[in-house]
Amino acid sequence: MIRSRFLKDISKIFFSSIVIRIFALPIAIILSINLGPEDYGTYRLLLSIYTFVVLIADLGIQNYIVKTLSEKPNDNKKNSVYLSTTYAIILLLFLIIGIISLILKFTIFSGVIFFNLLLLFLITLPFQLLAGLNIGALNAIKKRTAYAVVNAIYPFIHLILLLGIFTVYLNIEIAIITLIISKISFFIISFLMLYYNNIIISRVSILWKEVKSILSFSIKTLIGKILNSLNYQIDIIMIGIFLQERFVGFYSIAVTISHLFWIFPQSVQTINFSDFTTQYYENNIKNINKKITYSILLSLIILLLPILIMSLFGKDIIQLFFTSAYNSSYLPLNILLIGILVLGSFKPILPVFLSINKVKIYYRIPLISVIINLMLNIILINILGFTGAAIATTISYCIIVLLYTYYLKKVINYKYNIMNIVAIFIIYTLIIILNYYLSSLSITSRSGIIILESILSFFIIFYLIKKYNLLDQIKNILNLRAFS
Q1: Which terminal residue of the chain, N or C, has fewer Cβ atoms less than 10 Å from its own Cβ?
Q2: Where are the domains of the chain?
Q3: Residue 370: enclosing H or E segment and its boundaries?
């Protein structure tokens, strides 16, 4: 029953993530066409800065909410108190940011149009942060259907607003205003969903004495989030420093495609953060161990075929969607696919140390990885160009997995022998390398290899499914009725 619920929850989050990406494509098309290259470039730059501000301004408080509320998901009174307290912290923080921003507007950045546009963006900040707390709370109290629906509603509202406006007139200011309205709607809907589930935000519920402990935990998790974000971006930054802009473009296409394979593992990760916390609070380490193994195997099985298809037909896919001008993206894409498979299999369990109060390990692992990633990028980019960046990133992803395996055994006595998974990683690495060197041949000429690799992949998948009795679970994940 517990496993069935877990799989249905994954289905909800996974399909919600797919819907979000489906809405994101027409949004990008409408904005890029109607704003033009210059204004759309400005809009994307503003959005990137705003995204970084949100990451910092959150202070890791959303992680605190998920963890705290997951300990007793049915204790509505306690959960209302802690959510009200974090609301107060976020609003005070926004007040400080607002005052500083206005001082800068009338002094250093007086008359600077770009800064004025950024201030317009920042109107959404409190709504974005508070909505983040709301959906974090929905995840923590196991209301995954509500979580999935609310997450998908925001881009849908944004798309509807753009469709209603772009036929009349659309400039960068109006584009930002549509974003503001959609973010406010996001907050209101998530707030009402919490109210429906008896989580009440109240001024009298605020526990000021808890602010210090909340910030102490949250800021430590923020360090981990920043390091993880940096680890995923450092290769592009280093290419931008050492190479010409066109190589950033080639490499960015490879990164964009490869990260699509993380949609499913990240969906499992969202569920696991809350569930690991609940099980740890109940002192159920045995179940945590089982769920770690189960999550790794499930993600590995889901990733194998899509990554094989991309390694076989990646060049054709790039030419189809991005034209032959981006053929150079195919080599770094293949190298990144190795790292995506390795880290993607373990990505569902990355919050485990946060869930069991080992916050130092949570940010120590990405810190080590970032340092190694940075050093390897500096060395390999100067030797191999942007291909070196892909190699450095893939190595850093493998190091993350090795460190997680080491600390899991050390901290919670995790005993699963991962050598069969390592063997699969090695087999797929060889397959991806082979496919790259044969990519110049026609599909007809490669048909024998394609058939053999497909048979091998199906054999591996069926072996894992049978050995760990996963057939019913895979069916549940693919069952759209999980939403009902």
Answers
A1: N
A2: 1-206, 221-484
A3: helix 359-384
